[in-house]
Amino acid sequence: MLARSLVALLLSMPATVALLGSFLAILPSTSQFTLPALLMVFPVWVGMACASYLMPTARGAAAVLCGLTALGFGLIAALKFLGISGV
């Protein structure tokens, strides 16, 4: 249970930032959805932390959260590299 709690606490926040950051990178910088998306950080973080307890093992939850983080930050980097990002 300690491993699962550490996975939920330590790996869900970067995954949340990557997920919402990729959403914000797609939007234009003057969008009306910027502040509501930033306010969604806490509910999304709690949801990801709770979802990590639904995985059968802590190793699987860690793999999924690390994969989401890498995918999200990779998408942000690709959008910035291609010049598509609104930020």
Structure description:
The protein is an all-alpha fold and 87 residues long. It has one domain. 78% of the residues lie in helices and 0% in strands. It is built from four helices and no strands. Helix 1 (2-26) packs parallel to helix 4. The longest helix has 25 residues, at 2-26. It is elongated, with a radius of gyration of 14 Å. The termini are far apart. The mean pLDDT is 91.
What's the quick description here?
By secondary structure, the chain is mainly α.
Q: Secondary structure elements and their pairing?
A:
Blueprint: H1 2-26, H2 34-39, H3 41-52, H4 58-82
Helix pairs in contact: 1-3, 1-4
Structural class, judged by helices and strands? mainly alpha
- Spatial extent as radius of gyration: 14 Å
List segments where confidence is low: pLDDT < 50 over at least 5 consecutive residues.
none
Strand content: under 5%
**Whole-number mean pLDDT:** 91
Total DSSP E strands: 0
**Helical region count?**
4
Give the overall silhouette: elongated
Strand and helix order: HHHH
Distance between the termini: 40 Å
| Structural domain count | 1
Identify the notable features of this structure and list them briefly:
mainly alpha; 4 helices; 87 residues
